[in-house]
Amino acid sequence: MIGAGYVGLVSAACFSEFGWTVTCIDKDTDRIAQLNSGKVPIFEPGLDNLVERNRSADRLRFSTDLHTAVASADLIFLAVGTPMRRGDGHADLSYIFSAVEEIAPHLQAFTVITTKSTVPVGTSREIELKLKQLRPDADFVVCSNPEFLREGSAIQDFTHPDRVLVGCDDERARVIMERLYKPLTLRNAPIMFVGRESAELAKYAANSFLAMKISFINEIADLCSEVGADVQEVANAVGADGRIGDKFLHPGPGYGGSCFPKDVSALIRIGRENRAPISLIEQVQSINDERKISMAGRIEKAAGGSVRDKIIAVLGVTFKPNTDDMREAPSIVIVPMLQEKGATIRIYDPQGRKHGEDMLPGVIWADSALDAAQGADIAVILTEWNELRALDLETLKDKMRGDVLVDLRNIYRPELVAEAGFRYQSIGRPSD
Ligand code: UDX
Questions:
Q1: Pocket of ligand 1 contains residue 256 by CB under 6 Å
Q2: In which band, very low, low, confident or very high, does the pLDDT at 432 lie, cut at 50, 70 and 90?
């Protein structure tokens, strides 16, 4: 497994749990040293136990020595980052191709090289061409095996997938990939073998479709506010239709994370470059970008029109609960805008401080939600951490100086918030 990030580390640990011997490689010597000392550098529920169990069984190894690992590998996964290149929406494939150049000299017996990272359509074929140039003599096949892991539930998603998707047009590789995933297919998780371009495109299409559901319900929520409908009721009624499904119909401040924004951008780029624009997804992206920006104005309005010299308690800043990841989180847009409008920001997030400290300068970090609320005029729920759902609203109100509660994730019931004496602003509900 080349890459010990969110995808590589979870995949390596899960494959070793299946009984395979996995060497996880990363250039980052600190990260490998941490892993070899039993520390897991990312927050993912259950990952530390999984890593520890398999490391002590010597099924899971961590190393910076790519050469030795490659020489003895039957299967090589490329799970390095493919970040969005700032400005042009392209996926940056430099890490992928530098890994390809590093493995080329060390290929020995027949080897299956598989992209796990999300890559633009055609990348597997490009990797194959590159490797053939570097090693015309080597016996290898390049496949695509995109993952559908959600941060915060990555192990569950890996071990209980709706499907395993493999882009592969070589019989030998198919046999190896079937063996690799046997433990899952025994649990009748279907393994789908498709063309490599289909697998690569399906990954972007799946993420973009999910992002579309989110932008859709976010716009419906704003209409609900205007017509006195309740977006939760509308979402439940719509989601009850088996053709639609009730997942990813929760309104919020917009989607974030390291995947949706990047994959939506890349699909838009791929569509444009191939003269088949995905205009629907272009609209999904602009709805989402504008929504994050509009949230600061919504908070300002709930505060009576101005947040100047106001203290705002922001509860939750990670892009979603059960992660420490702040990439493209709505808070990265909303908090600085509130600061520009003259507000003082106090933040509590169970895991957000680790990366938030340098991504959100000039804020006061609190150790609990009640601590953040101390003396605040306004409290804002940005991320629906479970512990924020259990807050004692009366106590929260007593800590505050003001009485405005803005809930951008609809985690509270309006009547209970009113009882606690708050002026309550949520998303798409008649009480707004
Ligand atoms: C996503 C895909 O779900 C996963 O299959 C893919 O492999 C990686 O990208 P992830 O980004 O980890 O996973 O988180 P996800 O749970 O999908 O949430 C993404 C964003 O959408 C978050 O900001 C979340 O707050 C937001 N979201 C999600 C909503 O606003 N409403 C919803 O109903 C669901």
A1: yes
A2: confident
Rounded to whole angstroms, how far apart are CA atoms 64 and 320? 31
What are 302-334's pLDDT values in tens digits? 999 999 999 999 999 999 999 999 999 999 999
Two domains, one topology: 6-194 and 294-425: yes
Domain boundaries 203-286, corresponding CATH code: 1.10.1040.10
The finding on whether 15 has its CB within 6 A of some atom of ligand 1 is no
Q: Bridge-partner residues for 312, per DSSP?
A: 345, 378
Is domain 294-425 in CATH 3.40.50.1820, yes or no?
no
* Continuous segment of H or E residues that includes residue 424: strand 423-425
Q: Give the count of beta carbons closer than 10 Å to the beta carbon of residue 236.
A: 12
Which position has the token pair 């300002």?
A: 300
Strand 140-144 relative to strand 111-115, pairing: parallel
Q: How far is the CA of 204 from the centre of ligand 1 (A)?
A: 13
* Residue 328 Cα: closest atom of ligand 1: 23
Instruction: Answer whether 209 contacts ligand 1 (Cβ < 6 A).
Output: no
Give the Å distance between the CA of 149 and the centre of ligand 1: 10
Q: Is 224 a catalytic residue?
A: no
139-172 pLDDT, tens digit per residue, is: 999 999 999 999 999 999 999 999 999 999 999 9
Q: Which pLDDT does position 3 carry in this prediction?
A: 97
Q: Which of 14, 168, 224, 259 is catalytic?
A: 259
Which residue has tokens 């309740």?
230
Which segments within 145-243 are labelled E, that is strand? 164-167, 191-194
Q: What is the pTM of this model?
A: 0.95
| Domain edges within the chain | 6-194, 203-286, 294-425
Decide: 89 in ligand 1 pocket, CB within 6 A.
Answer: no
For domain 6-194, give the CATH superfamily. NAD(P)-binding Rossmann-like Domain (3.40.50.720)
